[in-house]
Amino acid sequence: MAHDVFISYSKQDKPVADAVCAVLEANHIRCWIAPRDILPSADWGESIIDALASAHAMVLVFSAWANASPQVKREVERAVHLGIPIIPLRIEDVEPTKSLEFFLSMPHWLDAFTEPMERHLQYLVEVLQRVLNGPARSSPADETGETSATPTEPAAPPDIKKPDEPPHLPPITPEPEPVTPPAAEPAKSPITVLEPVTQMSHFEAQVVTPVHPPPDAPPPAAKTAPAQNFADNGVASGNTTTAKPSRRGLLIAAAGAGAVAVGGSALLLRHHGVSAPRTLTGHTGSVAAVAFSSDGSVLASGGSDKTVRLWNVASGQTTQTLTGHTDTVQSVAFCPGNGPLASCGSDKTIRLWNAANGNLIVDITGNTNSVMYVAFGSASGPLASGGFDGNVKLWTLDGALKRIMTADNNKVLSVTFSPDGSTLASGSVGGAATLWDVATASQIRAVSTDNQDINSVAISPDGKTLATGSNNSNITLWDIASGNHIRTLSGHTKVVESVVFSPNGTTLASGSDDQSIKLWNVGSGVVSSTLTGHTGKVFCVAYSPDGHTLASASDDQTVKLWDVS
Q1: Any residues with CB less than 8 A from the CB of 74 and at least 6 apart, and which?
Q2: Which residue has the higher pLDDT, 140 or 78?
Q3: pTM (2 decimals)?
Q4: 3-state class of 328 per DSSP?
Q5: What is the distance between the alpha carbons of residues 233 and 438, in angstroms, rounded to a whole number?
Q6: Partners of 299 in beta bridges
Q7: Based on the domain organization, do 216 and 243 belong to the same domain?
Q8: I need a labelling partner for 545 at 20 to 30 A (CA). Which of 29, 253, 397, 419 fits?
């Protein structure tokens, strides 16, 4: 296939490489990445060579694993041989081996953080597109040190400021023999700095303008500079996977000669790492559901061991184990305020519990099939349930049935209320998500996802956007007022089981059968973090009320608490 960028990575860094690919392709930058783009019958080595020959740039996901990978080294050597600009994406604070250091230099970069993040991501895309397609390519004049007119740069983002003494690191061009570094100190480079981003933003993008010597300047005395310690650059701490707990930052920067050759700006994109999660163990089967109490101090979980567990969020200890269900607990929900805890399951029942003492308040029976989901509309109710009988039901807090709503008789897999409790959304088998008027129990409208089961629905805190997670591995955002499709979020590789908005509405979290959790920027639709660590399907994700903690429930019999602040 035609592509712009070749993504080189070690197999241990595949989640990061996949996330990078998704971000670039969401912005119409075509990527080639193995094994996705290698045909089953094709020769692996030939496919790599052909893909590199057709690429206009390489993105190198650089880590300790990549540093030790002979395959990565061969790909980098091939890219240098072909004169392809290499963009190192450094995700760990490790120094390159000497063989890689020979090809990769320390790029110009500078910390910068501002909100909204969409502005920086769009600016990053514009510059990447200029690197790939722009008019500024190396020429004989460049090689002699003479310069033509400075190429036009993309418009700088707003709210910029300049530091008093920006650092300058000259590019390294590989030579067959070592040469002496220049004695003279290089000139300072003009640097564009963006302002700080708030904690909820997950990407940082910076642009550093390349240095253009004056027309009468002599050619540089040497083409190399002393290597700098890669660990001294202030990359943010944290990690996106539990496999390697070292400090991680997601860094995109145009490397040495590659940056000069295309006449573009050096780039930095940092991914705020999410620290290793706390793992809560105690369930003896798959964990299907999690939910936080209104004050965030208690977490409820339920699963195939037929129990509901209550956890102290601060300590991670089980405080109570609620028994009584006779089959898998499919969903749990806290009533706002000091109301009851609801649970439902494959035993066709709904149970309301006193979360303080663990006593059963009421056991709601009479459903004819599994009850898959429960949700509260407000502190005074109603309680909504959806199940395999094809109905959405509204209940009072004492267990009385108020209304039954039926759209297409398909099994209902998920229900959720709008923040004001006036609208209810349901997702079902067959690909329909239905919006209901709670007061009248009438259908407002339905949206469809091409016959793909909708496993999860979520409504944004402002009540304007509906998110649906489907069997086709995609998430779809819908405008609630019009029912129009806003965008599709692609990046998971298997069924999406759960979606939930952060309390401030800027982030959407999703859990999938691919064992990962993704955090999406709602405004741009790009992945800001991919959280890995579960060894089974992720069935449910839930935010704490303050948005600082994300809980996940998995087929691996664990609950994980992620610090996403």
Answers
A1: none
A2: 78
A3: 0.57
A4: coil
A5: 54
A6: 292, 311
A7: yes
A8: 397
